[in-house]
Amino acid sequence: MRPLVLVPCDVKHVEGHPFHGVGEKYINAVSHGAGVQALLVPGIGAGQDLLSLEQDTDIDGLLDLAQGLFLTGSVSNVEPGRYGNSDAPADIKQDHQRDATVFPLLARAIARKIPILAVCRGIQELNVAIGGTLYHAVHEQPGYADHREQDGLSRAELYAPAHDVDVVAGGLLEKIVDAPCFAVNSLHAQAIAILAPGLRAEAISKDGVIEAVSKDGQFLLGVQWHPEWAFADNPQSKAIFAAFGQAVRHFATNR
């Protein structure tokens, strides 16, 4: 059996009913690009007291089964109160069930040094989980460009290269992609504000947004762009998922 990688679900409403799911592009990329078996993790059930539900969920039991954790992107945002932001607008899209699932998973996966790959919302969850903060609207900050997707474009146009990122020398990402600079897509409104203690910046956009991070002592890579989109046609994306798969298999062998 291929190693298992946990993939937490988003919770979305379809025809008035909540559904737990993960976009197929993420499942394809982690399954075929990393060569592992994706195991979808439903969000913690809705309720008045999500904190107690977090405490009652068998997170350690899930991690006993798994050799990796993959955090996907989403249209929802991390709940601003988790990083002390009281200025975010009330109508910001949120997914409290995903938050309640991912944050305890992240804390214990990091403690166990389980390989982690985090994309878009995932890098934001990662930064907040370790003690960093976010801009809820980076385009409103002085000096930063607008990193959001444009309306009215096809999916191929939405995920087309939007800007370059400069890779920080000597880090994990440089070893993976073997390139000082490359183009990425851009479909995010939030971005890292204060980098969490213990995280290292791995790539930075021309306007200064932190686009990738890592952490010493384990395979932990977060990227702000979407490498899962058409991953097989992009050399950097292929390299990222291949490196994640290699780390997962190494962890499984040496567990």
Description:
There is one protein chain. With 255 residues, the protein is an alpha/beta fold. The chain has a single domain, classed as Rossmann fold, CATH 3.40.50. It contains 8 helices and 13 strands. The strands form 3 sheets. A 9-stranded mixed β-sheet has the order 4-1-5-6-13-12-11-8-9, sandwiched between helices. It has a two-stranded antiparallel sheet with strand order 2-3. Strands 7-10 form a two-stranded antiparallel sheet. Strand 2 (10-14) and strand 3 form a beta hairpin. Helix 2 packs parallel to helix 4.
- Secondary-structure content class: alpha/beta
What is the level-2 CATH architecture name? 3-Layer(aba) Sandwich
Mean of the pLDDT scores? 92
Write the CATH homologous superfamily.
Class I glutamine amidotransferase (GATase) domain
Unreliable spans? none
Radius of gyration: 17 Å
State the helix count: 8
Features:
alpha/beta, 255 residues
Show the helix and strand layout.
Elements: E1 4-8, E2 10-14, E3 17-21, H1 24-33, E4 37-41, H2 50-56, H3 59-65, E5 68-71, H4 96-112, E6 116-119, H5 121-129, E7 134-135, H6 155-158, E8 163-167, H7 172-177, E9 181-184, E10 191-192, E11 199-205, E12 210-215, E13 220-223, H8 235-254
Parallel strand pairs: 1-4, 1-5, 5-6, 6-13
Antiparallel strand pairs: 2-3, 7-10, 8-9, 8-11, 11-12, 12-13
Helix pairs in contact: 2-4
